[in-house]
């Protein structure tokens, strides 16, 4: 009798373990991550009295990473459309690759920079940004490192600014 009960318990436990194992497998895992960028600050009073915010992101993987940056102002409004995504080129200039969307790809080991410069609207923005990424490589858990940079000027020849690592400089 005791042996029958023990065998019954063993069968039930085995079934639960096997069912739990098969349910735990997730073949459709989507690699993704995100980080908050605090203290976005931009204003444009004149050509020589302004401040610009930059978010630089580097892909640390061997896979293309899709990114989206969303910038929120002091009222919680999405002001991403006031920025542009840029890359370098071979002429010493910056090349705009996305304007007003905050969506872009970063090639393997590549870097892109988002710039929020509200010179067209001459509006001051205090806020934060959310950086999100996805990849088709389901083995990725971290794909980006980043840096926030603030640069401004008050009159000719008087610049001010600073930098801050995103996610304390750790990959996300």
How many independent structural domains? 1
CATH topology: the name is: Hypothetical Protein Tm1070, Chain: A
Relative helix content: 10-25%
Low-confidence stretches: 8-13, 15-26
What is the CATH class designation?
A: Mainly Beta
What is the count of β-strands?
10
Q: What pattern of helices and strands is seen along the backbone?
A: HEEEEEEEEEE
Structural class by helix and strand composition: mainly beta
- Count of alpha/pi helices: 1
How far do the termini sit from each other? 57 Å
Shape: globular
Report the portion of residues in β strands: over 45%
Question: What is the fold's blueprint, element by element?
Answer:
Elements (H helix, E strand, L loop, with lengths): L1 H23 L6 E16 L2 E11 L5 E8 L10 E6 L5 E6 L3 E4 L4 E6 L8 E11 L8 E11 L4 E7 L7
Antiparallel strand pairs: 1-2, 1-8, 2-7, 2-9, 3-6, 3-8, 4-5, 4-7, 9-10
